[in-house]
Amino acid sequence: MKSNKLNLPEESFRLQIKDLAEDVRIKFARKGLSDIFDVLSEAAFIIRKPLDTDELSGFSTYFEGQFIVYLNSNFTLGHERYTGAHELYHLIYNADILKKEKILLDDERYNVEDMKADVFASEFLMPEDYVKEVFYRIVDVDKNNILPRHIIRMHNFFKVSYKAMLKRLIQLDLCSSDKYEELLDICSLENTEQLQALTKREGYSIDLITPSRETFVPKEYIEFVKTNYEKGDISYKNMKHSLEFIGLAPEQFGYEYPQKEDY
To answer: Which candidate, 46, 106, 123, 141, has a CA 20 to 30 Å from the CA of 244?
Structure first.
């Protein structure tokens, strides 16, 4: 299903997932939702916080009848938004698996679903027809003459990472694949300052190319955890872990460790 050094999907596979992404986009647009964080908040509890690892962008889980998405805000905001769209695929098309397994992490059984989720993220955040329309409006140069500043304009418009936008332009034949390594170089860790300077020179903020390190927890999540404990649906230990993950403790809400509890 992957066919080249850029790890792009085969066209037939991409077009199959493109249809799914369009269906989901239309579904949420009818509710007035388009931003990926707003869409995720409609589909699940979304928690954004910096995690102590750079090996995990995010994950989805199913807990006591509720889907929950965790996003690692130690990654750049553009990367985080892409991860959110990836997880949206799992929420919608792998709901039964999540309900059964609770979480999908590094499991070979779900490699194909993970590939689908990656393609979905690209198709959802960067719709083919709209990318082409915007490209010819704000860039409009030959695919062999694309420069980093052109990628910057595009990725800021679609609120994705520089690298994701570059790969999408190559995929849609708006940028030559021969320029991939050259154009990719500026978004390497070694060239962070150069990319930030060029972004500012183009008139954009650097928000998308820096980690937000934001901690966002919906109040509904906290109430959800407390209510499930009070109803006896989860143990004190489970409540404690669920709150500690977001930097809170049961004692803050007046809960004391029970003298006796069945786990």
So the answer is: 106
